[in-house]
Amino acid sequence: MKRLLAFAAPFLFAGSAFAQVQVDLKFARIQYVAYEPVIASVQITNLAGRDIELRDDNGQHWFGFEVTAGEGRFLPSSKQEGEPPLRIESGKTVTRKINLTPLYPIQDLGPYHVRANVFFADLNKFFYSPSKVFQVGDARAIWQRTVGVPEGMTDAGSVRTYSLLSNRFPDHTKLYVRVEDKSTGAVYCTFPLGRAIAFDEPQAELDQSNSLHVLHCAAPRTWAYSRVGVNGELLAHKTYMETKTRPRLRRAADGRIAVRGGMLDAPVQSNPAAKLSARPPSVPPDD
Fold first, then answer.
1. How far, in Å, CA of 231 to CA of 176, rounded?
2. CA-based nearest residue to 34, from 97, 99, 105
3. How far lies 164's CA from each of 42, 102, 118, 147, 287, in Å?
4. Are 159 and 147 in contact (CB under 8 A)?
5. Are β-strands 52-54 and 86-88 bridged in parallel, bridged antiparallel, or unpaired?
6. Phi/psi of residue 7, each to 5°?
7. How far apart are CA 10 and CA 140, in angstroms?
8. CA-wise closest residue to 21 among 127, 116, 161, 101
């Protein structure tokens, strides 16, 4: 019996060490448009039986990702600094949402494989999530306009191109906006404005500051209004309900754009901000 226990002890210890930290990774969907935020949801569960602190140690970052392109090529991260230490109580799970788009070169079309990793300095050991895959494609441009950046704004005198893009998913269609400088290749944003149905073409208008106003039909008798700045900021996102009149964009004499008709519904809430990396823009919720 002593021999059996002595033989089994190393395996019991190894199993216990393996279960110290559990890492899980999820994506809201598997299809994304090039340059839009790809939000990875990472769950870290403490199974050590005691409170733990995850921290950088001897130049090793405690948190990161392994991202490979479709052909198996590892992609480098643009993020150099580490994360602040994270303390997790025994048995607790911490969830973080991280935007991978500004951290990795994932703009080329094709599949990408991702797994999250956590380094536990107390054991000098890495713990990995199961690998997940997502696909990057591009959407169909349905409207485009190039404008100048007004004086007093960042990059005044340069140009921006607004594009409205339509992307069809298996069960719905989504409208996107992209802001870019085609002369330099810089893309300032690509994000969804919400679901769209083929009831009416989206309305797009530019105001006196060259901000883009978009009104589109998101569902029967439901219209989504968005205002986007020349540097890719989402300045407003609201929902209007069709009543006796249908909401429409109207231009005032001073160049201001406003929604006339319909009834303003409750504002759409944006996604929670990322905790462990560059924050994604305040985009409408992913559905």
1. 16
2. 105
3. 31, 21, 39, 14, 19
4. yes
5. antiparallel
6. -70, -40
7. 58
8. 127
Do 148 and 211 form a contact (C-beta atoms < 8 A)? Answer: no
Q: pLDDT tens digit string along 176-234?
A: 999 999 999 999 999 999 999 977 789 999 999 999 999 999 999 999 999 999 999 99
Distance CA 198, CA 158 (A): 35
d(CA 105, CA 185): 14
For the chain, residues with pLDDT lower than 70 are 1-19, 266-287
- What are the structure tokens assigned to 211, written together? 């901000």
Contact status, residue 211 vs residue 227, Cβ threshold 8 Å: yes
Tokens 């490979």 identify what position? Answer: 68
Kindly list the domain boundaries of the chain, sorted by start residue: 2-136, 139-264
Strand arrangement, sheet containing 140-148: 140-148, 159-168, 173-181, 186-196
Phi, psi of 206 (to 5 degrees): -110, 135
Domain 2-136 sits in CATH at: 2.60.40.2970
